[in-house]
Amino acid sequence: MMKALKQYAAPYLMISPFYLLFIVFGLFPILFSLYLAFHAWDGLGQMEFVGLRNFRNLLTDDPDFWNSVGNTFIIWFLSTLPQLFLALVVAFLLNASFMRFKNTFRAIFFLPNITSIVAVSIIFGSFFGAQFGLLNGLFSAIGLPTIDWINDTFWVKVAISLMVIWRWTGYNAIIYLAGLQSISGDLYEAATIDGASRPQQFFYITLPLLRPIILFTVILSTIGGMQLFTEPAILVGLSGGATKGGLTLVLYLYNQAFGNHLFGYASAIAWMLFLIIAVFSFLNWKFVSRGEGI
């Protein structure tokens, strides 16, 4: 026994820093937040055990919570579907035989993902300004009515969604491109010999083989969309805007924790967010993967 321990002591010692850091900065905060969700605490004073009161108040007496849930889902819907569709189109173009300078275009499309999101949000803020914004300037020049992007409940969601689309389309396109390049060309040659048209090849070869990749991007987009914070925080502020149309779940969580110092209540919001992401990801998985065995 001691000989076996000595034999494997060195490798386990080498990987131990990762596990120690994970326990301290990963596992402990998760477990502590669950413990905190059943308490009332302002961050400095004595903790008070309140049982399920935080969750009960969250679900029954907090309209701002449900408003933030609705805002988050609407922004996710407005951003994810166009984003993944555009990413698939971009991936097909980058994979096409007639496309030149493919590596250059890949870098260009991926560039928004590595650009500072704070800088991007500030630039987009100049686009969506109500008085001097670029878009409203263009609308006025061609005789169209201007839009109050920041203060209108619906249009602020569109503005945030456009930022998300711009940032993540190239990232998902690169993932789709990797999936397309993994499909053997022999399948398309055989389908062409059998008389299959381009649309038939897409629906019966490309799409089924890309299904795991599509599921992966949908799950990632769901997790990211439910945790949206930086874009609305920079564009409309931590309050979610004058009409709270940009108030997302994570923004609301941040306000409760670091604005109102209700850390127990914020922990309850965090665990509700975890449940929402888990359920929504499961539903997306079932929807995207249905018929996989056919």
UniProtKB/TrEMBL annotation:
Q: Where does the sequence pass through the membrane?
A: 12-38, 73-96, 108-134, 154-180, 201-221, 233-255, 262-283
Residue ranges constituting the ABC transmembrane type-1 domain according to the UniProt record: 69-284
Q: How does it sit in the membrane?
A: Multi-pass membrane protein
Q: Where in the cell is it found?
A: Cell membrane
Q: Which PROSITE patterns match?
A: ABC_TM1
Swiss-Prot/TrEMBL keywords: Cell membrane, Membrane, Transmembrane, Transmembrane helix, Transport
InterPro entries for this protein? ABC_transporter_permease, MetI-like, MetI-like_sf
Which Pfam families does this entry report, sorted A to Z? BPD_transp_1 (PF00528)
What does the similarity note say? Answer: Belongs to the binding-protein-dependent transport system permease family.
Can you name this protein? Sugar ABC transporter permease
Q: Which organism is it from?
A: Paenibacillus radicis (ex Xue et al. 2023)
